[in-house]
Design brief:
It comes from Thermoanaerobacter pseudethanolicus (strain ATCC 33223 / 39E). This is UPF0291 protein Teth39_0326. One of its GO terms (cellular component) is cytoplasm. The chain is mainly alpha-helical and about 80 residues long. It has a single domain, classed as Helix Hairpins, CATH 1.10.287. The chain is built from two helices and no strands. Helix 1 crosses helix 2. The longest helix has about 45 residues. The N and C termini lie far apart (about 60 Å). The mean pLDDT is about 85.
């Protein structure tokens, strides 16, 4: 779960690493936070893609059904 605090902490560690540098503990913490963050983002993307995939499938079935019901009248 990505929390506001987690984001703030990642930002804080990033800026500190750019300015004065991090201690070994902070480097470890930064690595853990980033892994957690990336894992969460990947999960979200996967869920998004799955819901989009299912939505598309049902739309296609819908579309195909409608085509069967249309009778083309030739003049």
């Amino acid at each position: 779960m990505i929390t506001r605090e987690m984001i703030d902490r990642i930002n804080f560690l990033y800026h500190k690493s750019q300015t004065e540098g991090l201690t070994e503990e902070e480097k470890e913490e930064q690595k853990r936070l980033r892994q957690e963050y990336v894992k969460e983002i990947k999960e979200r993307v996967r869920r998004e893609l799955e819901s989009i995939k299912y939505a598309n499938n049902s739309c296609e079935h819908c579309g195909h059904d409608h085509h069967h019901h249309h009778h083309h009248h030739r003049h």
